[in-house]
Design goal:
Type 2 lantibiotic biosynthesis protein LanM; metal-binding; elongated; zinc; four-stranded antiparallel β-sheet; about 950 residues; alpha+beta
């Protein structure tokens, strides 16, 4: 085995010994790369150019196509020196540093010492000695040289042979080849990669692999277009497929001319997304899409179909099933924005994602620093993901996909509906497709690339066995034990030894695996691609259509920046709910049914989760499994559990309890981190949810978990923490005291007192300088302190609470009859919401009516009257969204609670009047959830489940008001 390697190594030594005069092209290229050891490459490039001249001479002699040889030579030489630097750079850097440390470099300056070393590389004897120290490097250099010569020779032979067909099929009557450009993509099967042929009539793309998947996709496009049901026909790229290679027209990046073209583009994206979802294609990232005017062009479909039938599901846990659900959905195509919690990619690779420069802190690459000096070194730095050609432009402005969600929705819906209506014809059509060879990516290309990067370290270039031992570690990444998998590993290592990315293919109607275009592993797959595809077509359904449209909306919402920033809300007329529902309970059940339909179940059906939008640190959404936060995922469980109690329907009970088990498995089972002391975002969420489940169902297991987390909280050593109702201790104190009023547990009271001390002391340290309002401000702090002062008989708490109310009232704006929002200097801001402004302040003051003496209660009543007046007059405008945190349904819930506290029939009547008005709006104009440019978010405080919970309270007001931080009294149900 190693003898063959060394045979090529000896041939490289001969090339060095027999090097001739240097050509001008070689001299100029090496001079350009002088600071990157340019003189090391002179003999290799010179030898290569002599061979390349021979190839070009033969081509020129035997056909009539003109070559601009100088351009081609320079282009190919530049590509070769880049290849050679990639494999040799680390070794040369190591060698110069060794000589510097041993004081073997001559020169007064760092640059002169580098020049001394660079000149040394011109010495044939030294160069051969160096390569004998690193024989693997010598082999790789030799391989790179001859692979590239073979690639050029093969290209030109095929170009001559296919000339007439290319002119006809691609409609390009070219006579001159002006240049040949190598792509920067991976190499396979002997250094082969995509080439761009620049002619006098335009560019042609040459691909050294089968283009039968592209042809198949084009045939499916023809099938879809011929049905004449789409609003706009979808284009296809001209493609010529031969056995093992092919030609394509070049897709030129172009801006749209007008808004109609932009809408057409995104409609076609929706259409093609439906097709790719049907096919199970999974590689449509941003580098594989070109925005060509009103036409999206997919430039790499070699992985059009994926065969996973050989995979063994080593784990059947819920996380694995959740990830598989993503892979099988529209998100798995990679065409949509990809911002998924826990993903190995910390940047958005989605095909239609339109970000500017992105930066990856996880994926890093080597950058050469201090070039041209004897301190030259490699430093691993974060990758900057630059602009690409997938962005849709109009008048030099990027068109954001989320602003054209209706077009994407319509395109996807129309095409999916077409497929459903023509399923039988489509299956017959697929059965007629033959001879399609599809690449199978058995491991992420990034994994292979990391192995190749590691294998260029000098330690692995001294001995072929050492290199092979390193690359063999790829076997242990998976538990691959079958004979077929072991053989596949051998062919992976074989390709990696030659510095190629392994290349595997299979055919549509066979279950064999072809490895590196050389050998075939029989019966590698359990099913054929055709069987998998036909199963996918059969599985398409109305329920799946609804689910995929939902996923599309969730994905698009992750592209919005500054999601808390308020702006005029756009009507989502394609996202209407409650069309045929009249009663509140029917509407709540519709939302419950949505959760039943979209639940992702474990294999044993004991646990489930949902794909949800989770608020990320950068004020953006990311997608992930339902979390335990009461603000987000935990509230979903509360809604479903309450719905199950009210309806008595087992499906809601089953999905809610399985959902809670899913949260435990994914987030709690193996967590060792201390949870945040917060009601809506931390350990308080679990205390509240488990206690609510216990109260609703007399569930003793839930009660024991409530006790577990309460004890955990009581043992916290809290110094500095958030103080507010949502993120901090204020909300915890209020809820725990409300539980105490039922449980009379000393542990609850001592825990509250401990939290109260933190709140009290921290507020004094901050000089009482905070926001107004309930969720993050004075109204929440004062509520917690006064309620706690009452329970533990602490006058300091009571006095500070009253002081905070006085400070908050100093911020009252008499012109607007509302409390100022001091987060902003904008004097026009006038919030009437649970979280900020009059609504939340009304709720806080109402809950303090029975906590103070008569004198202070009079002041509280005055505030309450002002706040209720503002709430009833301005708390239900169309400018507000429908969320419960900062929207109409939150204000409806507050009216329900205020009517109960104050025994006010008029407030109750207005709550139902405003609810009916809001439901009418949702039926006709669509739902508006609580974030900028958001769609139908599923979570609690800003989304559907919160709205559903308020609908349940409208149906039965005896359920606890979460906004009022109360807990359920099971005795009144």
């Amino acid at each position: 085995m190693y003898k063959d390697y060394y045979n090529d190594v000896e041939k490289l030594y001969e090339i060095i010994r027999n090097s001739n005069e240097k050509s001008d092209e070689v001299f100029q290229i090496c001079k350009k790369n002088n600071e990157l050891f340019g003189k090391f490459f002179i003999e290799f490039l010179d030898f290569f150019k002599v061979k390349l001249d021979d190839i070009l001479y033969k081509f020129r002699k035997n056909n009539c196509i003109e070559l601009i040889e100088k351009n081609i030579i320079i282009s190919v030489l530049n590509s070769l020196i880049e290849d050679l630097l990639n494999v040799s750079g680390r070794t040369l850097i190591a060698e110069i540093n060794i000589k510097r440390e041993e004081n073997l470099l001559i020169g007064e300056t760092s640059k002169s010492r580098y020049n001394f070393f660079n000149e040394l590389l011109l010495n044939d004897k030294y160069k051969i000695e160096l390569l004998k120290k690193y024989p693997v490097l010598a082999y790789l250099i030799y391989t790179k040289i001859f692979n590239k010569l073979e690639v050029i020779s093969e290209l030109l032979e095929r170009l001559v042979r296919d000339y007439a067909i290319i002119k006809s099929e691609l409609n390009m009557d070219f006579k001159v080849i002006q240049n040949i450009n190598f792509s920067s993509g991976d190499t396979h099967n002997g250094g082969k990669s995509v080439l761009i042929i620049v002619t006098d009539k335009g560019k042609i793309v040459y691909k050294p692999h089968s283009l039968s998947p592209e042809k198949m996709f084009g045939e499916i496009i023809d099938f879809i277009n011929k049905k004449e049901t789409l609003k706009i026909k979808v284009n296809k790229i001209r493609t010529i497929d031969f056995n093992g290679y092919g030609w394509q027209e070049f897709a030129e990046y172009k801006s749209c001319k007008n808004l109609t073209e932009v809408c057409n583009y995104f409609y076609k994206i929706g259409v093609e997304l439906a097709i790719f979802h049907m096919l199970g294609c999974d590689d449509l990232h941003y580098e594989n899409l070109i925005a060509c005017g009103e036409n999206p062009v997919f430039i790499d479909l070699e992985t059009l179909l994926k065969n996973n039938s050989s995979d063994t599901l080593y784990s059947e846990n819920l996380t694995t099933v959740f990830n598989q659900n993503i892979n099988d959905s529209v998100l798995g195509t990679m065409l949509l924005p990809l911002n998924v919690k826990g993903s190995v990619f910390d940047y958005d690779m989605g095909g239609i994602s339109s970000y500017g420069d992105q930066k990856s802190n996880f994926w890093k690459s080597y950058v050469i620093e201090n070039a041209g000096t004897d301190e030259i070194r490699l430093n691993k730095k974060s990758i900057n993901i630059g602009d690409s050609y997938n962005k849709v432009m109009l008048n030099e402005e990027v068109m954001e996909p989320i602003d054209f969600n209706q077009d994407i929705h319509n395109g996807f819906f129309d095409c999916y509906r077409l497929i459903l209506d023509n399923k039988t014809d489509l299956i017959k059509f697929i059965n007629l497709i033959k001879n399609v060879e599809v690449r199978q990516v058995l491991r992420a290309t990034a994994v292979y690339a990391r192995f190749l990067e590691a294998a260029t370290h000098p330690s692995y270039l001294t001995d072929f066995k050492e290199r092979e031992m390193l690359l063999s570690k790829i076997r242990v990444l998976n538990q691959e034990t079958t004979e077929n998998l072991k053989n596949k590993n051998l062919y992976e290592i074989d390709a990696l030894m030659d510095n190629d990315i392994p290349y595997f293919t299979t055919y549509l109607w066979t279950n064999d695996l072809v490895c590196n275009n050389k050998v075939k592993i029989r019966n590698y797959y359990n099913s054929t691609l055709s069987e998998i595809l036909l199963d996918r077509v059969q599985s398409l359904s109305e329920i799946n259509l609804k689910k995929q449209l939902y996923y599309i909306r969730m994905s698009l919402a992750t592209t919005v920046k500054d999601i808390w920033k308020k702006e005029s809300l756009k009507e989502n007329s394609n996202i209407t709910y409650f069309k045929n529902k009249k009663s509140y309970i029917e509407c709540a059940k519709e939302l419950g049914d949505l959760f039943c339909e979209t639940a992702i179940w474990s294999k044993d059906k004991n646990t489930c989760t949902w794909l949800t939008q989770i608020i990320a640190k950068e004020d953006k959404f990311e997608l992930g499994p339902l979390n335990y936060s009461l603000y987000e995922g935990g509230g979903v469980i509360l809604f479903l559990n309450t719905l199950a109690k009210e309806t008595g329907e087992s499906k809601y009970s089953k999905v809610s309890m399985a959902g809670m088990k899913g949260i435990e498995e994914i987030y709690l089972q193996h967590s060792t981190n201390q949870l945040q002391p917060s009601l809506f975002q931390g350990i308080g969420s679990l205390i509240y949810i488990y206690y609510s489940i216990y109260s609703l169902n007399d569930d003793k297991d839930a009660y024991s978990k409530y006790i577990k987390y309460l004890k955990e909280l009581s043992e916290y050593d809290i110094d500095k923490t958030a103080l507010d109702v949502i993120s901090g201790v204020s909300g915890l104190i209020i809820v725990l005291l409300n539980i105490y009023s039922k449980e009379k547990s000393e542990l609850l009271l001592t825990t509250c007192d401990k939290l109260g001390k933190v709140l009290y002391e921290s507020l004094l340290e901050d000089n009482l300088n905070h926001f107004t309002g309930l969720s993050h401000g004075y109204a929440g702090f004062s509520w917690a302190l006064i309620l706690l002062g009452k329970y533990v008989n602490n006058n300091n708490y009571l006095e500070l609470g009253k002081k905070l109310i006085e400070i908050e009232n100093e911020k009252f704006n008499k012109d607007k009859l509302n409390w100022k929002d001091i987060r902003t200097e904008d004097k026009n801001v006038d919030h009437v919401l649970w979280c900020h402004g009059a609504s939340g302040i009304a709720l806080s003051r109402a809950n303090l009516l029975n906590c103070l003496d008569d004198k202070d209660t009079i002041k509280i009543q005055r505030d309450l009257e002002l706040a209720i007046k503002k709430l009833t007059s301005e708390g239900f405008t169309d400018e507000l969204d429908h969320s419960i945190c900062h929207g109409i349904f939150g204000n409806i819930d507050i009216l329900l609670k205020l009517s109960q506290i104050l025994n006010d029939r008029m407030l109750l009547e207005q709550a139902y009047k405003e609810a009916d008005k809001a439901l009418k709006y949702i039926r006709t104009k669509g739902i508006k959830c609580g974030m900028k440019k958001s769609f139908d978010i599923s979570t609690f405080m800003i989304g559907l489940s919160g709205i559903g919970y308020v609908l349940l309270r409208l149906h039965n007001p005896r359920y606890a008001s979460v906004l009022s931080l109360e807990v359920l009294n099971a005795e009144v149900l």
